[in-house]
Each structure stands twice: as structure tokens, then as C-alpha cells.
Specification:
317 residues, alpha/beta, Rossmann fold, five-stranded parallel sheet, binds N-carbamoyl-L-aspartate
Length: 317
């Protein structure tokens, strides 16, 4: 695993939550909470990233993650440039590293990268100059660290301590970077119990997610849980023949109001989006009183501000 910290112990890259200590996660969440605002409230701003230039390099589609990294950078006073990878020289065969060296020569200090290929993030981080930080905006099925942090922040805001919660992750866990980062953050914060629920074909291999209870029906798995995290079927990472039929999937694994009634009465419903209504979640549940899905989006900006500030912030500003 790539070293994510500088020799003085401060965070330089954020590629995975796997090796982050509890105190490091707590500090990021605390800072994110400082920046968090409800929908409709004026967003906070600061100058802590004045003079810092950030590149968003996304080679897979993204709406929320890209926009919220961009807003987060701007709200801290940074310059943010979205690089259209399809239009850039990578489409002409320039290697990822040549693109990166070009950005480095243009004085970019933070590279925010989303890529479908496992290992690209660590490869880039191993080759950049000392003043450059690399942040993952989603790496293959492996990791989506800022999503994990925003999920933890959302649970904390609604439920208080993570340590008291029973959390269920539901659906295509096998192909989900969101599930892996959620698992890592909830494990680090010592959640009371973690459950994985899904059809056997979409469950991760036995050695992954140690310490979780596994269920193959929602009826069983949701009993008494405090947090229900729904996932999209990652069709782009599954062979066509293995993609479940959507009607059948909804009939067995869709989160309906009746199934949600099995959970704790105060349970919250989460989804990283994009959502497929009528596939993994019923529309009335997605929009219902227990849903915190839109708050997750708002928290994405706050978490990304905290992470950008941690890796590149000028604390004197
Ligand atoms: C997710 C992703 O790209 O991993 N979206 C997001 O960042 N909120 C989830 C998904 O695509 O299913």
C-alpha cells in the first residue's frame, strides 16, 4: 500500500481509508462538520486554499463527486480545473503519467482522480513530485474514500456515535467501492455491528469484509438495524450474462416500505446515488421521511472541503 502521509505524519494523499487511524478519521469528520450546512443555508467559505490549483481528472462518469470536489475547492479559495479526459491527449494515446507530468508542470498541487482501473491511483501517487497530492474520487470497485467519510458524517449527524449503530449494506456489494470504503470507515469507528445483505452472486468473496454478518434476504437482514445503505447494481463491472433481471431483483432485494418496517423505527435510509428507482429502492422510500439521501449529497461538499484542507490547506490563512 502506498504511504499516504508525509514524513511529519500529516495526510498527503487520500486513496483509501484502509490504513487511516480512528483519530485521523475523527479529525476529518470534525472539520467536515464545521463546514456542513443544511440545504438552503448559505455555504461557508474560507481562503485556506488560496493559490492552490486543483485538477479534476475523471475517466468514469460522475455528477455528485465531481461537482462537489469542484465546489469544495472553490469555497476554500482554490482554482479548480476540470480536465475532460476524453478530449485531452489521453484519447490520443498519451499515457496517464505523461498527462500527470504535464499537470505537474502547470503547477497543479492536487489531482483528484476517478478511474476504472485498479491501481492507477497508487501508481500516480508513486510518481508525482513532493508538492503534489493525489485524491481518489473512486477507484474501480476498490475504494471511494470521500464517499465513506460523507456516509459516516451523515450517520453521525442523525444517530450520534457510530459505535452504537447496527449498519446494513445492501445489494451489489461485490462490485462496490462505496461498500468497501463504508466498511473501512465504520469498522475504524467501531460500529456495533455490520451486516451485508444481497444475492449470493453479488456478495463479496469470503475473505473480504471480515467481521460482518451475511444475509441473503432483506427480511432477515434488516431486522432491528439502525442504518440501511442501499447500493446500485454496478452493471459496468459485471458481465452481461450475470446482471440480474431488474424486476426479479426488485421483488427480492428492492427496499420497500414493508421491508423497511423490519428495521428499527428510527432507522435511516442511505444511497450514494445514482439511484435506480424500482430496482434497488422503491420511490416512496427514496423520498420518504427516513431517507437521508439528499443530505449525503450536501455532506459531500463539506467532507471534500475537509479533505482538501487537510492535504493542501494553508493553516495560516
Ligand atoms: C458511486 C460511485 O461512483 O461509486 N457514486 C458516487 O460517487 N456517489 C456509486 C455508484 O456509481 O453506484
Amino acid at each position: 500500500m502506498i504511504e499516504q502521509r508525509r514524513p511529519n505524519g500529516s495526510l498527503r494523499h487520500l486513496i483509501t481509508l484502509e490504513d487511516l487511524r480512528r483519530d485521523e478519521i475523527e479529525a476529518l469528520l470534525q472539520r467536515a462538520q464545521h463546514y456542513a450546512r443544511g440545504v438552503g443555508q448559505a455555504p461557508p467559505g474560507s481562503e485556506r486554499l488560496r493559490g492552490v490549483t486543483i485538477a479534476n481528472l475523471f475517466t468514469e462518469p460522475s455528477t455528485r463527486t465531481r461537482v462537489s470536489f469542484e465546489l469544495a475547492g472553490r469555497r476554500l479559495g482554490a482554482e479548480v480545473v476540470n480536465i475532460e479526459v476524453q478530449l485531452s491527449s489521453r484519447a490520443k494515446g498519451e499515457s496517464m503519467l505523461d498527462t500527470i507530468y504535464t499537470l505537474q508542470a502547470l503547477h497543479f498541487a492536487v489531482l483528484v482522480i476517478r478511474d476504472a482501473e485498479p491501481g492507477v491511483l497508487a501508481h500516480v501517487a508513486a510518481h508525482v513530485a513532493a508538492h503534489v497530492s493525489v485524491l481518489s474520487a473512486g477507484e474501480a470497485h476498490l475504494s471511494h474514500p470521500t464517499q465513506g467519510l460523507l456516509d459516516a458524517l451523515t450517520v453521525r449527524q442523525h444517530k450520534g456515535s457510530i459505535a452504537a449503530q447496527c449498519i446494513a449494506i445492501v445489494g451489489d456489494i461485490r462490485h462496490s467501492r462505496v461498500a468497501r470504503s463504508a466498511y473501512q470507515v465504520f469498522r475504524a469507528l467501531e460500529a456495533r455491528s455490520l451486516r451485508l445483505i444481497g444475492p449470493p452472486t453479488l456478495m463479496p468473496p469470503a475473505h473480504e469484509f471480515p467481521g460482518c454478518e451475511r444475509f441473503d434476504t432483506l427480511e432477515e437482514g434488516l431486522a432491528g438495524v439502525d442504518v440501511v445503505m442501499m447500493l446500485r447494481i454496478q452493471k459496468e463491472r459485471i458481465a452481461q450474462s450475470d446482471i440480474p433481471d431488474t424486476e426479479e431483483y426488485f421483488a427480492r432485494y428492492g427496499l420497500t416500505a414493508a421491508r423497511l418496517a423490519r428495521a428499527h423505527p428510527g432507522a435511516i435510509v442511505m444511497h450514494p446515488q445514482p439511484m435506480n428507482r424500482g430496482v434497488e429502492i422503491a420511490s416512496d422510500v427514496a423520498d420518504g421521511p427516513q431517507s437521508v439521501i439528499r443530505e449525503q449529497v450536501s455532506n459531500g461538499v463539506a467532507v471534500r472541503m475537509a479533505v482538501l484542507e487537510a492535504v493542501a490547506g494553508n493553516m495560516a490563512a
